[in-house]
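Aim 2 progress update. The chain analyzed this quarter is reproduced below.
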Amino acid sequence: MNTHELWTVVHGMGFGFLFLLGFAGALYGIYIMKPEWMTAEGTNINVRNIRIFLWVLAAATWLAVFSGAFIVYPWYRATPPAGTTDLTNFPKFLLVANESTAFWHEFGMEWKEHIAFVVPFAATMVAYMAQYYGATITQKPEVRRYVMIFFSIAFVAAAVAGVLGAFITKAAAVH
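Predicted structure tokens:
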């Protein structure tokens, strides 16, 4: 693997996948924070673990976005020199040159460029809410519900971005 391919893997399969994989555990940890299900000691331990876990997941989303936007994406959209006919090393132009793959750039990268930025903001909001409310979240079902909703929105946006990224990489990989 060259440097470009390695950074693409770190961006998607490292940071992005870490968030997607950790989502289920974090959502479950938030869900079980019901007063009738937890002892006081269990609540304190769970809250501490969830706080740490959510901040790690939020950091992973920020790292995925920054590595994608500032490391991988410039390689993706590199402009080929005039007269270049082999667009293999210019993924954006390779995709848009073919009518059957232009969709992957026009929709897929637009999603990744704009909508996927929702993920780190939502993940950070969830981590902040867990930090702010702490153990009292067990007594506030509406807050717990909002945390799960924000987190689910982040998950859906990240999952769509991940699937689109995989398809785009399959159609026109960054070399």
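Residues 3-171 form one domain. The chain is about 75% helix and 0% strand. These observations will guide the mutagenesis experiments scheduled for the next reporting period.
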